[in-house]
TrEMBL record:
It comes from the Bacteria. This is Threonine/serine exporter family protein. The keyword Cell inner membrane applies. GO terms for biological process: succinate transport. The lineage of its organism: Bacteria, Bacillati, Bacillota, Clostridia, Eubacteriales. It is a multi-pass membrane protein. It comes from Faecalibacterium taiwanense.
Length: 152
């Protein structure tokens, strides 16, 4: 339990830190921290139940993008900075490092394993993001269509 709490706190602080690096408006920094915490929480829950790197990252990327879209509408700001800071904890840095280390050490079976894990994580994040952004775009178009049809 303490390990999970420390992971969630680290995800939130890491997201805030990257928000500072990316010059995110200071009033949005707490929201960036919450986004990182929620994305990592979604990943942890999905990883423990689904036992799939791809599906866990797909769900976490979807949650991060959905959170960013909701926040963008509430704050009347673009969603991209919110998504980037929320997705920071999901970036598969350790598996990429282990992959490159295995390549340098000429351990091709380990490099293949870690490369596959890195690719699946990145593909999952991108897929979740794409699904959430397609749904948000569809929602905007339906809302616009409803407003136009009610005005006639």
């Amino acid at each position: 339990m303490i390990q999970v709490f420390s992971q969630l706190l680290s995800a939130a602080l890491g997201s805030v830190g990257f928000g500072l690096i990316f010059n995110l408006n200071r009033r949005y920094l707490p929201a960036a921290g919450v986004g990182g915490l929620l994305a990592w929480l979604a990943y942890l829950l999905a990883a423990n139940t689904l036992h799939s790197v791809f599906l866990a990252n797909l769900l976490a990327g979807f949650c991060a993008a959905l959170y960013a879209e909701i926040l963008a509408r509430c704050c009347n700001a673009p969603s991209t900075p919110f998504f980037i800071t929320a997705a920071i904890p999901l970036i598969p840095g350790s598996t990429l490092y282990y992959c490159m280390n295995a390549v340098v050490s000429n351990d091709l079976s380990a490099a293949e394993h870690f490369g596959e894990q890195t690719f699946l994580a990145a593909l999952g994040i991108a897929g979740g993001m794409a699904i959430a952004w397609c749904l948000a775009d569809l929602s905007r178009k339906l809302h616009t269509l409803a407003i136009r049809s009610s005005g006639k």
